[in-house]
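Hi support team,

I'm opening this ticket because the web form for multi-chain structure prediction keeps timing out on my end. I have pasted the exact lines I submitted so you can reproduce it. The total is 567 residues across two entries, so I didn't expect it to be a heavy job. Is there a limit I'm missing, or should I split the entries? Thanks in advance, R.K.
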Amino acid sequence: MEIPEWLKQKPAISYQPSAVRKAKERFLDKTLRHVLAFTEDALFNETTSLKNGFLQKIEPRLKVLTVMVFIVMLSLQNDIHDILIFLYIAAASALISKIPFYFFMKRLLPAFLFTFFIAAPATLNIIVKGEALWVVYTLENPYSIGWFLIPQEIYITKQGALSALTLLLRVTASVSLILLVTLTTRPNRFIKAVSSFMPGTLGSIVSISYRYIFLLARKVEQFIMGFKSRSISSASHGVAGRKWAASRMGLLFSISLRLSAGLEQAMEARGYKNEFKIQNSKFKVSELSGADIIWIIFSVIFMGAMVWKSLM
Amino acid sequence: MRKIELEGFYVMHIPDGYLGPYTYGGLWAAMAPIWIYASRKTKETLNVSQIPLLALGAAFSFVIMMFNVPMLGGTTGHATGATLIAILLGLWPAVIAVSIALVIQALIFGDGGITALGANCFNMAFAEALVGYAVYRIISSSKFPPRAGRRGDKTQDSDAETQRSSLNARHLIGAGTGAYIGINLAAFLTAVELGIQTILHAGADGRPLYSPFPLEITIPAIMFGHIFLFGIVEALVSVLVLVYIRKSHPELIRR
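Hello R.K., no limit was hit. The queue was backed up. Here is the completed structure from your submission:
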Protein backbone atom coordinates (compact mmCIF):
# COMPACT_ATOMS: atom_id res chain seq x y z
CA MET A 1 0.00 0.00 0.00
CA GLU A 2 1.34 3.41 -0.96
CA ILE A 3 1.75 6.16 1.63
CA PRO A 4 -0.42 9.14 0.68
CA GLU A 5 1.38 12.38 -0.25
CA TRP A 6 -0.12 14.46 2.57
CA LEU A 7 1.35 12.08 5.15
CA LYS A 8 4.85 12.51 3.76
CA GLN A 9 4.73 16.30 4.02
CA LYS A 10 6.54 17.92 6.93
CA PRO A 11 4.56 20.46 8.94
CA ALA A 12 5.38 24.09 7.98
CA ILE A 13 6.43 24.82 11.54
CA SER A 14 8.88 22.43 13.14
CA TYR A 15 8.26 20.45 16.26
CA GLN A 16 8.88 22.37 19.45
CA PRO A 17 9.70 21.18 22.97
CA SER A 18 6.66 20.29 25.00
CA ALA A 19 7.01 23.28 27.37
CA VAL A 20 6.79 25.75 24.48
CA ARG A 21 4.02 23.78 22.85
CA LYS A 22 2.09 23.64 26.11
CA ALA A 23 2.14 27.42 26.45
CA LYS A 24 1.07 27.85 22.86
CA GLU A 25 -1.77 25.35 23.08
CA ARG A 26 -3.18 26.95 26.19
CA PHE A 27 -6.24 28.19 24.35
CA LEU A 28 -7.27 24.58 23.77
CA ASP A 29 -6.71 23.65 27.40
CA LYS A 30 -8.61 26.69 28.61
CA THR A 31 -11.57 25.92 26.38
CA LEU A 32 -11.49 22.31 27.49
CA ARG A 33 -11.30 23.43 31.11
CA HIS A 34 -14.40 25.60 30.65
CA VAL A 35 -16.31 22.73 29.06
CA LEU A 36 -15.25 20.24 31.73
CA ALA A 37 -15.96 22.68 34.56
CA PHE A 38 -19.41 23.22 33.09
CA THR A 39 -20.22 19.50 32.90
CA GLU A 40 -18.61 18.86 36.30
CA ASP A 41 -20.78 21.60 37.87
CA ALA A 42 -23.91 20.15 36.32
CA LEU A 43 -23.00 16.65 37.48
CA PHE A 44 -22.22 17.88 40.97
CA ASN A 45 -25.55 19.74 41.14
CA GLU A 46 -27.27 16.46 40.32
CA THR A 47 -25.34 14.60 43.07
CA THR A 48 -26.03 17.09 45.87
CA SER A 49 -29.66 17.52 44.82
CA LEU A 50 -30.22 13.81 45.53
CA LYS A 51 -29.09 14.06 49.16
CA ASN A 52 -31.67 13.83 51.90
CA GLY A 53 -31.31 17.43 53.10
CA PHE A 54 -33.76 20.15 54.11
CA LEU A 55 -33.73 22.34 50.96
CA GLN A 56 -33.91 19.25 48.71
CA LYS A 57 -37.39 18.57 50.17
CA ILE A 58 -38.80 21.98 49.25
CA GLU A 59 -40.95 22.44 46.15
CA PRO A 60 -38.58 23.86 43.46
CA ARG A 61 -40.91 26.70 42.39
CA LEU A 62 -41.33 27.81 45.99
CA LYS A 63 -37.57 27.62 46.52
CA VAL A 64 -36.76 29.60 43.35
CA LEU A 65 -39.33 32.28 44.17
CA THR A 66 -38.24 32.78 47.79
CA VAL A 67 -34.54 32.82 46.96
CA MET A 68 -35.16 35.40 44.19
CA VAL A 69 -36.95 37.60 46.75
CA PHE A 70 -34.06 37.06 49.20
CA ILE A 71 -31.56 38.17 46.53
CA VAL A 72 -33.57 41.31 45.74
CA MET A 73 -33.83 42.11 49.46
CA LEU A 74 -30.11 41.49 49.86
CA SER A 75 -29.37 43.92 47.05
CA LEU A 76 -31.15 46.63 49.08
CA GLN A 77 -29.00 46.07 52.20
CA ASN A 78 -26.08 48.38 52.82
CA ASP A 79 -25.30 47.56 56.40
CA ILE A 80 -22.62 44.89 56.88
CA HIS A 81 -24.49 43.28 59.79
CA ASP A 82 -27.65 42.91 57.71
CA ILE A 83 -25.69 41.38 54.83
CA LEU A 84 -24.01 38.99 57.27
CA ILE A 85 -27.46 37.71 58.32
CA PHE A 86 -28.02 36.57 54.70
CA LEU A 87 -24.62 34.86 54.73
CA TYR A 88 -25.44 33.07 58.00
CA ILE A 89 -28.74 31.90 56.52
CA ALA A 90 -26.95 30.62 53.40
CA ALA A 91 -24.34 28.80 55.52
CA ALA A 92 -26.97 27.28 57.84
CA SER A 93 -29.11 26.20 54.86
CA ALA A 94 -26.08 24.57 53.23
CA LEU A 95 -25.37 22.72 56.47
CA ILE A 96 -28.90 21.34 56.97
CA SER A 97 -29.04 20.47 53.26
CA LYS A 98 -25.92 18.28 53.64
CA ILE A 99 -23.94 20.16 50.99
CA PRO A 100 -20.24 19.29 51.47
CA PHE A 101 -18.47 22.38 52.80
CA TYR A 102 -15.46 21.90 50.51
CA PHE A 103 -17.55 21.75 47.34
CA PHE A 104 -19.70 24.69 48.39
CA MET A 105 -16.59 26.79 48.98
CA LYS A 106 -15.03 25.58 45.72
CA ARG A 107 -18.05 26.84 43.78
CA LEU A 108 -18.14 30.07 45.76
CA LEU A 109 -14.43 30.84 45.55
CA PRO A 110 -14.22 32.22 41.95
CA ALA A 111 -16.91 34.86 42.62
CA PHE A 112 -15.34 35.68 45.99
CA LEU A 113 -11.81 36.07 44.61
CA PHE A 114 -12.99 38.01 41.55
CA THR A 115 -14.81 40.53 43.75
CA PHE A 116 -11.96 40.58 46.27
CA PHE A 117 -9.46 41.69 43.61
CA ILE A 118 -11.96 44.15 42.12
CA ALA A 119 -12.84 45.64 45.52
CA ALA A 120 -9.33 45.74 47.02
CA PRO A 121 -8.19 48.99 45.25
CA ALA A 122 -11.36 50.71 46.49
CA THR A 123 -9.97 50.60 50.03
CA LEU A 124 -7.33 53.18 49.05
CA ASN A 125 -7.78 56.94 49.17
CA ILE A 126 -6.96 57.02 45.42
CA ILE A 127 -10.48 55.64 44.80
CA VAL A 128 -12.55 56.42 47.91
CA LYS A 129 -11.64 59.48 49.92
CA GLY A 130 -12.09 59.43 53.66
CA GLU A 131 -10.67 58.99 57.11
CA ALA A 132 -7.16 57.44 57.09
CA LEU A 133 -6.86 54.01 58.69
CA TRP A 134 -3.40 52.86 57.63
CA VAL A 135 -0.74 54.52 55.48
CA VAL A 136 0.41 52.12 52.76
CA TYR A 137 3.04 54.24 50.98
CA THR A 138 4.32 57.81 50.83
CA LEU A 139 5.45 59.16 47.48
CA GLU A 140 7.96 61.98 47.05
CA ASN A 141 5.39 64.08 45.22
CA PRO A 142 1.75 63.73 44.21
CA TYR A 143 1.24 62.65 40.60
CA SER A 144 -1.49 63.23 38.08
CA ILE A 145 -2.09 60.93 35.11
CA GLY A 146 -4.56 62.77 32.91
CA TRP A 147 -7.59 63.43 35.12
CA PHE A 148 -6.45 60.84 37.64
CA LEU A 149 -4.69 62.16 40.76
CA ILE A 150 -2.38 60.08 42.92
CA PRO A 151 -1.89 61.82 46.27
CA GLN A 152 1.49 61.96 47.98
CA GLU A 153 0.30 59.77 50.85
CA ILE A 154 -1.50 56.58 49.84
CA TYR A 155 -3.58 55.10 52.66
CA ILE A 156 -6.51 52.82 53.35
CA THR A 157 -9.60 54.82 54.22
CA LYS A 158 -12.35 53.78 56.62
CA GLN A 159 -14.99 54.58 54.01
CA GLY A 160 -13.14 52.68 51.29
CA ALA A 161 -12.62 49.61 53.48
CA LEU A 162 -16.30 49.60 54.48
CA SER A 163 -17.39 50.04 50.87
CA ALA A 164 -15.16 47.20 49.63
CA LEU A 165 -16.25 44.89 52.45
CA THR A 166 -19.93 45.64 51.80
CA LEU A 167 -19.51 44.80 48.12
CA LEU A 168 -17.54 41.63 48.84
CA LEU A 169 -20.04 40.33 51.39
CA ARG A 170 -23.06 41.23 49.26
CA VAL A 171 -21.68 39.43 46.20
CA THR A 172 -20.66 36.39 48.27
CA ALA A 173 -24.10 36.19 49.91
CA SER A 174 -25.89 36.53 46.53
CA VAL A 175 -23.82 33.81 44.90
CA SER A 176 -24.27 31.58 47.99
CA LEU A 177 -28.04 31.91 47.77
CA ILE A 178 -28.24 31.05 44.08
CA LEU A 179 -25.80 28.17 44.64
CA LEU A 180 -28.09 26.81 47.33
CA VAL A 181 -30.94 26.52 44.85
CA THR A 182 -28.87 24.95 42.08
CA LEU A 183 -27.14 22.51 44.44
CA THR A 184 -30.35 21.31 46.08
CA THR A 185 -32.64 21.04 43.05
CA ARG A 186 -32.38 18.40 40.34
CA PRO A 187 -31.44 20.24 37.11
CA ASN A 188 -34.54 19.15 35.16
CA ARG A 189 -36.84 20.21 38.03
CA PHE A 190 -34.94 23.47 38.42
CA ILE A 191 -35.33 24.26 34.73
CA LYS A 192 -39.06 23.47 34.96
CA ALA A 193 -39.35 25.73 38.00
CA VAL A 194 -37.53 28.60 36.27
CA SER A 195 -39.55 28.09 33.08
CA SER A 196 -42.82 28.25 35.02
CA PHE A 197 -42.06 31.90 35.88
CA MET A 198 -41.51 32.83 32.22
CA PRO A 199 -44.08 33.57 29.51
CA GLY A 200 -45.03 30.39 27.57
CA THR A 201 -42.64 30.47 24.62
CA LEU A 202 -39.61 31.76 26.53
CA GLY A 203 -40.01 29.11 29.21
CA SER A 204 -40.10 26.35 26.63
CA ILE A 205 -37.04 27.73 24.82
CA VAL A 206 -35.06 27.77 28.10
CA SER A 207 -36.14 24.22 28.79
CA ILE A 208 -35.05 22.87 25.38
CA SER A 209 -31.93 25.00 25.22
CA TYR A 210 -30.60 23.72 28.55
CA ARG A 211 -30.74 20.13 27.32
CA TYR A 212 -28.94 20.89 24.06
CA ILE A 213 -26.18 22.90 25.73
CA PHE A 214 -24.77 19.62 27.06
CA LEU A 215 -24.83 18.05 23.63
CA LEU A 216 -23.03 21.03 22.05
CA ALA A 217 -20.54 21.19 24.94
CA ARG A 218 -19.80 17.51 24.37
CA LYS A 219 -19.16 18.29 20.69
CA VAL A 220 -16.69 21.01 21.69
CA GLU A 221 -14.90 18.54 23.93
CA GLN A 222 -14.67 16.07 21.02
CA PHE A 223 -13.36 18.81 18.68
CA ILE A 224 -10.59 19.66 21.13
CA MET A 225 -9.60 16.10 21.94
CA GLY A 226 -9.51 15.29 18.22
CA PHE A 227 -7.40 18.35 17.43
CA LYS A 228 -4.98 17.74 20.31
CA SER A 229 -4.47 14.13 19.31
CA ARG A 230 -3.67 15.13 15.73
CA SER A 231 -1.31 18.07 16.30
CA ILE A 232 2.36 17.74 17.14
CA SER A 233 3.55 21.14 15.95
CA SER A 234 2.98 24.63 17.32
CA ALA A 235 0.88 25.41 14.27
CA SER A 236 -2.11 25.07 16.57
CA HIS A 237 -1.51 28.58 17.89
CA GLY A 238 -1.68 31.95 16.13
CA VAL A 239 -3.42 32.21 12.80
CA ALA A 240 -3.96 28.45 12.47
CA GLY A 241 -5.38 28.26 15.99
CA ARG A 242 -7.75 31.15 15.34
CA LYS A 243 -8.89 29.60 12.08
CA TRP A 244 -9.40 26.26 13.78
CA ALA A 245 -11.44 27.81 16.63
CA ALA A 246 -13.57 29.79 14.15
CA SER A 247 -14.12 26.75 11.92
CA ARG A 248 -15.33 24.72 14.94
CA MET A 249 -17.73 27.52 15.88
CA GLY A 250 -19.04 27.54 12.31
CA LEU A 251 -19.40 23.77 12.41
CA LEU A 252 -21.16 24.04 15.74
CA PHE A 253 -23.62 26.48 14.18
CA SER A 254 -24.34 24.10 11.33
CA ILE A 255 -24.80 21.26 13.86
CA SER A 256 -27.17 23.51 15.86
CA LEU A 257 -29.28 24.18 12.78
CA ARG A 258 -29.33 20.50 11.86
CA LEU A 259 -30.41 19.60 15.38
CA SER A 260 -33.10 22.29 15.39
CA ALA A 261 -34.47 20.99 12.06
CA GLY A 262 -34.51 17.44 13.46
CA LEU A 263 -36.17 18.63 16.65
CA GLU A 264 -38.77 20.52 14.68
CA GLN A 265 -39.57 17.39 12.63
CA ALA A 266 -39.83 15.33 15.81
CA MET A 267 -42.17 17.90 17.36
CA GLU A 268 -44.32 18.01 14.25
CA ALA A 269 -44.47 14.22 14.15
CA ARG A 270 -45.84 14.31 17.69
CA GLY A 271 -48.58 16.76 16.76
CA TYR A 272 -46.79 20.01 17.58
CA LYS A 273 -48.75 23.07 16.39
CA ASN A 274 -46.59 26.07 17.18
CA GLU A 275 -47.32 25.55 20.85
CA PHE A 276 -45.16 23.96 23.45
CA LYS A 277 -46.22 23.51 27.02
CA ILE A 278 -43.96 22.36 29.82
CA GLN A 279 -45.53 19.61 31.84
CA ASN A 280 -45.64 21.38 35.18
CA SER A 281 -48.13 20.25 37.76
CA LYS A 282 -50.26 23.00 39.30
CA PHE A 283 -49.04 24.42 42.55
CA LYS A 284 -51.52 23.22 45.19
CA VAL A 285 -51.50 24.42 48.80
CA SER A 286 -52.94 21.06 49.92
CA GLU A 287 -49.86 19.27 48.56
CA LEU A 288 -47.33 21.31 50.51
CA SER A 289 -44.95 19.19 52.57
CA GLY A 290 -43.87 19.85 56.14
CA ALA A 291 -40.55 21.23 54.87
CA ASP A 292 -42.42 23.57 52.49
CA ILE A 293 -44.52 24.95 55.35
CA ILE A 294 -41.48 25.44 57.60
CA TRP A 295 -39.67 27.23 54.73
CA ILE A 296 -42.66 29.49 54.00
CA ILE A 297 -43.03 30.43 57.69
CA PHE A 298 -39.31 31.11 57.99
CA SER A 299 -39.22 33.16 54.74
CA VAL A 300 -42.23 35.29 55.69
CA ILE A 301 -40.86 36.00 59.18
CA PHE A 302 -37.39 36.77 57.83
CA MET A 303 -38.60 39.05 55.04
CA GLY A 304 -41.02 40.78 57.41
CA ALA A 305 -38.21 41.34 59.92
CA MET A 306 -35.92 42.79 57.24
CA VAL A 307 -38.65 45.15 55.96
CA TRP A 308 -39.53 46.19 59.52
CA LYS A 309 -35.84 46.84 60.29
CA SER A 310 -35.40 48.97 57.17
CA LEU A 311 -38.48 51.05 58.08
CA MET A 312 -37.26 51.70 61.62
CA MET B 1 7.35 33.14 32.43
CA ARG B 2 3.66 32.61 32.97
CA LYS B 3 1.62 34.63 30.52
CA ILE B 4 -1.35 36.75 31.43
CA GLU B 5 -4.75 35.09 31.28
CA LEU B 6 -7.50 37.50 30.39
CA GLU B 7 -11.04 36.42 31.17
CA GLY B 8 -13.25 38.65 29.06
CA PHE B 9 -16.19 36.49 29.95
CA TYR B 10 -16.29 37.85 33.48
CA VAL B 11 -15.55 41.44 32.51
CA MET B 12 -18.86 41.74 30.71
CA HIS B 13 -21.13 39.80 33.10
CA ILE B 14 -22.14 42.06 35.97
CA PRO B 15 -22.72 39.95 39.11
CA ASP B 16 -25.32 40.66 41.80
CA GLY B 17 -24.37 43.32 44.32
CA TYR B 18 -22.52 45.71 41.99
CA LEU B 19 -25.58 47.64 40.79
CA GLY B 20 -28.01 49.55 42.97
CA PRO B 21 -31.79 49.20 42.71
CA TYR B 22 -32.27 52.28 40.49
CA THR B 23 -29.95 50.94 37.83
CA TYR B 24 -30.91 47.27 37.84
CA GLY B 25 -34.62 48.09 38.26
CA GLY B 26 -34.47 50.56 35.37
CA LEU B 27 -32.70 48.10 33.09
CA TRP B 28 -35.15 45.29 33.94
CA ALA B 29 -37.94 47.73 33.06
CA ALA B 30 -36.15 48.62 29.81
CA MET B 31 -35.63 44.99 28.82
CA ALA B 32 -39.22 43.84 29.44
CA PRO B 33 -40.73 45.62 26.38
CA ILE B 34 -37.67 44.65 24.30
CA TRP B 35 -38.24 40.95 25.07
CA ILE B 36 -41.95 41.28 24.24
CA TYR B 37 -41.18 43.08 20.97
CA ALA B 38 -38.40 40.62 20.09
CA SER B 39 -40.78 37.67 20.65
CA ARG B 40 -43.39 39.24 18.37
CA LYS B 41 -40.86 40.12 15.65
CA THR B 42 -39.37 36.64 15.86
CA LYS B 43 -42.77 35.10 15.17
CA GLU B 44 -43.21 37.43 12.19
CA THR B 45 -39.75 37.07 10.64
CA LEU B 46 -39.18 33.33 11.00
CA ASN B 47 -41.46 31.42 8.68
CA VAL B 48 -40.66 28.11 10.30
CA SER B 49 -41.59 27.26 13.85
CA GLN B 50 -39.22 29.33 15.94
CA ILE B 51 -38.95 27.37 19.18
CA PRO B 52 -36.36 24.73 18.16
CA LEU B 53 -34.33 27.28 16.22
CA LEU B 54 -34.24 29.76 19.10
CA ALA B 55 -33.52 27.04 21.64
CA LEU B 56 -30.57 25.78 19.62
CA GLY B 57 -29.54 29.39 18.90
CA ALA B 58 -29.43 30.01 22.67
CA ALA B 59 -27.48 26.79 23.24
CA PHE B 60 -25.04 27.83 20.47
CA SER B 61 -24.69 31.29 22.03
CA PHE B 62 -23.97 29.71 25.43
CA VAL B 63 -21.37 27.28 24.08
CA ILE B 64 -19.42 29.72 21.89
CA MET B 65 -18.81 31.85 24.99
CA MET B 66 -16.75 28.89 26.27
CA PHE B 67 -14.38 29.03 23.29
CA ASN B 68 -10.97 30.56 23.92
CA VAL B 69 -9.38 32.15 20.90
CA PRO B 70 -5.57 32.51 20.76
CA MET B 71 -4.34 36.08 20.44
CA LEU B 72 -0.98 37.79 20.19
CA GLY B 73 1.63 37.19 22.89
CA GLY B 74 0.07 33.98 24.19
CA THR B 75 -3.06 35.67 25.54
CA THR B 76 -6.50 34.27 24.84
CA GLY B 77 -9.93 35.84 24.76
CA HIS B 78 -13.63 34.99 24.60
CA ALA B 79 -16.26 36.19 22.20
CA THR B 80 -19.88 36.85 23.20
CA GLY B 81 -21.03 36.17 19.64
CA ALA B 82 -24.05 38.51 19.83
CA THR B 83 -23.37 40.22 16.47
CA LEU B 84 -22.49 36.92 14.81
CA ILE B 85 -25.75 35.34 15.99
CA ALA B 86 -27.68 38.41 14.81
CA ILE B 87 -26.10 38.02 11.36
CA LEU B 88 -26.80 34.29 11.28
CA LEU B 89 -30.30 34.19 12.80
CA GLY B 90 -31.57 37.77 12.44
CA LEU B 91 -31.61 40.59 15.01
CA TRP B 92 -34.70 39.78 17.09
CA PRO B 93 -34.11 36.01 17.27
CA ALA B 94 -30.57 36.88 18.39
CA VAL B 95 -31.91 39.13 21.18
CA ILE B 96 -34.00 36.19 22.45
CA ALA B 97 -31.24 33.59 21.98
CA VAL B 98 -28.48 35.59 23.72
CA SER B 99 -30.88 36.61 26.54
CA ILE B 100 -31.73 32.96 27.18
CA ALA B 101 -28.05 32.00 27.19
CA LEU B 102 -27.49 34.74 29.81
CA VAL B 103 -30.49 33.56 31.86
CA ILE B 104 -29.12 30.00 31.95
CA GLN B 105 -25.64 31.25 32.84
CA ALA B 106 -26.99 33.40 35.68
CA LEU B 107 -29.50 30.98 37.14
CA ILE B 108 -27.82 27.64 36.74
CA PHE B 109 -24.13 28.42 36.72
CA GLY B 110 -24.03 31.65 38.74
CA ASP B 111 -22.23 33.67 36.02
CA GLY B 112 -23.80 37.13 36.15
CA GLY B 113 -26.41 38.08 38.69
CA ILE B 114 -30.17 37.72 39.02
CA THR B 115 -30.77 41.39 39.81
CA ALA B 116 -28.18 42.36 37.16
CA LEU B 117 -29.75 40.10 34.53
CA GLY B 118 -31.70 43.00 33.02
CA ALA B 119 -28.47 45.00 32.71
CA ASN B 120 -26.49 42.10 31.23
CA CYS B 121 -29.23 41.35 28.71
CA PHE B 122 -29.55 45.02 27.82
CA ASN B 123 -25.81 45.36 27.22
CA MET B 124 -25.04 42.09 25.44
CA ALA B 125 -28.28 40.70 24.05
CA PHE B 126 -29.83 44.00 22.96
CA ALA B 127 -27.35 46.87 22.55
CA GLU B 128 -24.45 44.76 21.27
CA ALA B 129 -26.58 42.74 18.86
CA LEU B 130 -28.53 45.80 17.65
CA VAL B 131 -25.56 48.05 17.01
CA GLY B 132 -23.36 45.25 15.68
CA TYR B 133 -26.07 44.15 13.28
CA ALA B 134 -26.90 47.73 12.23
CA VAL B 135 -23.23 48.41 11.40
CA TYR B 136 -23.07 45.13 9.48
CA ARG B 137 -26.18 46.05 7.49
CA ILE B 138 -24.92 49.56 6.73
CA ILE B 139 -21.51 48.39 5.51
CA SER B 140 -22.80 45.40 3.58
CA SER B 141 -25.86 47.48 2.43
CA SER B 142 -27.80 44.52 1.10
CA LYS B 143 -31.38 43.51 1.54
CA PHE B 144 -31.86 40.32 3.49
CA PRO B 145 -34.87 38.13 2.78
CA PRO B 146 -35.72 35.46 5.37
CA ARG B 147 -32.97 33.02 6.23
CA ALA B 148 -32.29 30.39 3.62
CA GLY B 149 -31.45 26.74 3.93
CA ARG B 150 -34.05 25.30 6.29
CA ARG B 151 -37.01 23.14 5.60
CA GLY B 152 -39.99 25.25 4.62
CA ASP B 153 -38.00 28.20 3.28
CA LYS B 154 -38.79 29.46 -0.19
CA THR B 155 -35.13 30.03 -0.98
CA GLN B 156 -34.09 26.53 0.00
CA ASP B 157 -33.30 25.48 -3.53
CA SER B 158 -31.08 28.45 -4.33
CA ASP B 159 -27.85 27.62 -5.96
CA ALA B 160 -25.04 27.18 -3.42
CA GLU B 161 -22.62 29.16 -5.53
CA THR B 162 -24.97 32.15 -5.63
CA GLN B 163 -25.30 31.98 -1.85
CA ARG B 164 -21.53 31.83 -1.46
CA SER B 165 -21.04 34.87 -3.62
CA SER B 166 -23.75 36.70 -1.67
CA LEU B 167 -21.34 36.89 1.26
CA ASN B 168 -18.67 39.11 -0.24
CA ALA B 169 -15.81 41.14 1.23
CA ARG B 170 -18.17 43.95 2.23
CA HIS B 171 -20.20 41.53 4.34
CA LEU B 172 -17.06 40.27 6.07
CA ILE B 173 -15.80 43.81 6.73
CA GLY B 174 -19.29 44.71 7.95
CA ALA B 175 -19.40 41.69 10.26
CA GLY B 176 -15.95 42.41 11.72
CA THR B 177 -16.62 46.12 12.19
CA GLY B 178 -20.10 45.48 13.58
CA ALA B 179 -18.81 42.89 16.05
CA TYR B 180 -15.98 45.21 17.15
CA ILE B 181 -18.25 48.23 17.63
CA GLY B 182 -21.01 46.10 19.18
CA ILE B 183 -18.87 44.59 21.91
CA ASN B 184 -17.20 47.90 22.64
CA LEU B 185 -20.58 49.55 23.03
CA ALA B 186 -21.66 46.77 25.41
CA ALA B 187 -18.43 47.25 27.38
CA PHE B 188 -18.99 51.02 27.48
CA LEU B 189 -22.54 50.55 28.78
CA THR B 190 -21.23 48.14 31.43
CA ALA B 191 -18.61 50.72 32.45
CA VAL B 192 -21.22 53.50 32.65
CA GLU B 193 -23.67 51.36 34.64
CA LEU B 194 -20.93 50.48 37.14
CA GLY B 195 -19.47 54.00 37.20
CA ILE B 196 -22.73 55.83 37.98
CA GLN B 197 -23.23 53.83 41.19
CA THR B 198 -20.98 56.27 43.08
CA ILE B 199 -23.28 59.11 41.98
CA LEU B 200 -26.60 57.31 42.57
CA HIS B 201 -25.87 55.49 45.81
CA ALA B 202 -23.65 56.99 48.50
CA GLY B 203 -23.92 56.54 52.26
CA ALA B 204 -24.23 59.38 54.80
CA ASP B 205 -20.45 59.27 55.31
CA GLY B 206 -19.88 59.52 51.56
CA ARG B 207 -18.88 55.88 51.05
CA PRO B 208 -20.10 54.19 47.84
CA LEU B 209 -22.80 51.62 48.61
CA TYR B 210 -22.48 49.57 45.40
CA SER B 211 -19.70 49.52 42.77
CA PRO B 212 -17.14 51.86 44.37
CA PHE B 213 -15.37 53.00 41.19
CA PRO B 214 -16.29 56.30 39.53
CA LEU B 215 -16.78 56.72 35.77
CA GLU B 216 -13.24 58.06 35.28
CA ILE B 217 -11.95 54.67 36.43
CA THR B 218 -14.55 52.21 35.11
CA ILE B 219 -14.53 53.57 31.55
CA PRO B 220 -10.76 53.35 30.90
CA ALA B 221 -10.39 50.13 32.94
CA ILE B 222 -13.07 48.24 31.02
CA MET B 223 -12.62 49.87 27.62
CA PHE B 224 -8.86 49.29 27.44
CA GLY B 225 -9.22 45.51 27.34
CA HIS B 226 -12.11 45.66 24.91
CA ILE B 227 -10.56 48.11 22.47
CA PHE B 228 -7.23 46.26 22.33
CA LEU B 229 -8.18 42.63 22.89
CA PHE B 230 -11.76 41.47 23.28
CA GLY B 231 -13.07 43.69 20.48
CA ILE B 232 -10.47 42.21 18.14
CA VAL B 233 -11.35 38.67 19.30
CA GLU B 234 -15.03 39.35 18.67
CA ALA B 235 -14.34 40.78 15.19
CA LEU B 236 -11.96 37.95 14.25
CA VAL B 237 -14.34 35.25 15.43
CA SER B 238 -17.28 36.78 13.55
CA VAL B 239 -15.31 37.10 10.30
CA LEU B 240 -13.63 33.70 10.49
CA VAL B 241 -16.86 31.89 11.35
CA LEU B 242 -18.58 33.54 8.38
CA VAL B 243 -15.64 32.65 6.12
CA TYR B 244 -15.90 29.03 7.28
CA ILE B 245 -19.67 28.96 6.77
CA ARG B 246 -19.28 30.54 3.30
CA LYS B 247 -16.77 27.87 2.37
CA SER B 248 -18.29 24.79 3.98
CA HIS B 249 -22.00 25.47 4.55
CA PRO B 250 -23.03 28.29 2.14
CA GLU B 251 -26.65 27.17 2.37
CA LEU B 252 -26.77 28.49 5.97
CA ILE B 253 -26.08 32.09 5.01
CA ARG B 254 -28.93 34.55 5.31
CA ARG B 255 -28.89 36.66 2.15
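A quick check on our side: Residues 191 and 219 of chain B are 5 Å apart (CA to CA). Let us know if the file doesn't open in your viewer.
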